[in-house]
Amino acid sequence: MKRTWRFWLALWAGKIITTGLLATGKKGTTLPGKISNWFDPQIMKHLSESYTDGIIMVTGTNGKTTTANLLASILREAGKDFAFNQAGANLVTGITGALIQNTSWRGSSRARMALLEVDEATVPKFCKQVTPNLAIVTNFFRDQLDRYGELDTTVRMVKESLPKETILILNADDPLVAQFGTNLTKAIYYGVERTPDSREESQETREARFCPRCGTALEYSLFHYGQLGVFKCSGCGFQRPEPKILAQDIHQNEGALLFQVAEVTYRIALQGYYNLYNALAAFTAARELGFEDETIARGLRVFIPQAGRMERFYLSEGEVTLTLVKNPTGFDQVIQTMIGVNKPLGILIGINDLAADGRDISWLWDVNFERLGEQDRRIKNVVCTGLRAEDIALRLKYAGVSVEKLILEHSLEGALDHLKKTRAEDEAWFVLPTYTLLFPFRGILENLQNSAGLTNSEAKGGKEARA
Known about the structure:
The relative contact order is 0.10. The chain folds into 2 domains: 5-301, UDP-N-acetylmuramoyl-L-alanine:D-glutamate ligase; 311-466, Protein-Tyrosine Phosphatase, Chain A, CATH 3.90.190.20. Helix 4 crosses helix 10 (274-288). A 9-stranded mixed beta sheet has the order 2-3-1-4-5-6-9-10-11, with helices on both faces. The protein contains 18 helices and 17 strands. It starts with a helix and ends with a helix. Strand 2 (83-84), helix 5 (92-101) and strand 3 form a beta-alpha-beta unit. The protein has helices spanning 5-23, 30-39, 43-48, 64-77, 92-101, 123-129, 145-148, 151-161, 175-178, 274-288, 293-301, 328-340, 370-374, 389-399, 412-421, 435-451, 456-459, 463-466, and strands at residues 54-59, 83-84, 113-117, 134-137, 167-171, 187-192, 218-225, 228-233, 245-253, 256-261, 264-268, 311-315, 318-322, 345-350, 379-385, 406-408, 428-433.
């Protein structure tokens, strides 16, 4: 595709804005991409042509950022240079901005590979201009219905947009994802044999009660979480595909996940069995890219959680885990993780209803907060903050959390102060914000961690670092 004057104007405008933003300490992704796309709506296509070693796309409802960062850790261990929208700006503007940062003033890319997290609703726009070599699809759950619409619309939109040439890395345990590989030879599946939380019956919210091919009710022999599990349709025979990469002997130990693939043990510094799927998606993609298992193991082992995805901070008062919450299934898994810690709990929940969070917060009533109510004796306090602090407090009251344990505090610093002042011995702290509160909380926690005399690299070592 010939580069026109519009391309050069778009590129140079983006480069100038990026340089200025980076000089002021900002990330420089979204605004440069917005301006560049205004000058040349095809700039993403022009820029993508330089990535001769391939473009990897990561999409799905939950786990995109963690999966992309896990794969990035493996790529770095393999000595690969690559373009990456690490900041998580996964719309067209953010993706374009990341590509511009990796492009010289002469229009050549500084790397030959790109790893791009792509929002589900952005996949059609992205794939009109870019043909990814690999596409990882993590899962599909209801998320921000005011923005995405009904889930079947999102699934269909993604499925119809993926180019036929693209090799698909698919979650075998999610029927909404597994259907993508029907009659395709370029589909590679990953899945889980069984986790300690897997059950033969489930009362959790499920998005895929019916077969995506014929509409018959799906039968499950095992549930992992949500609609993920071992499923079969008695109507048309659609069933969970045989995973090429199967995780076995799964357990948690000292804040890390351990699992085996073909009798080799792997370790990642993440909590929550749902994060196992993110590791498997990255593992499968790395295998397909031709990396050795030893390199993959190192990449998973040295991974540091990013931007509020079970990210740990170490304050003078103790350890805090920060993790994003954005939809019922994801929140349910965070609750499961908190309960599994088996310690007294100090919880801070921040709910906003700005555009990036989703204006409709009725999803809070689909979260199984009743599980927290059942653990009321273990809960020291739940601090409620954000624009919809009162709404989450009301939801928790009806879920059975004692009213005297619910604290309303709209100041973010004040909310954390409440958590610190009421700390019990050996208490596990969790800070659970929606999108627009994530980075403000992250900034406050980083400052508190630095005040305690710890760097992020030292914090990775946990109790050893604090000693």
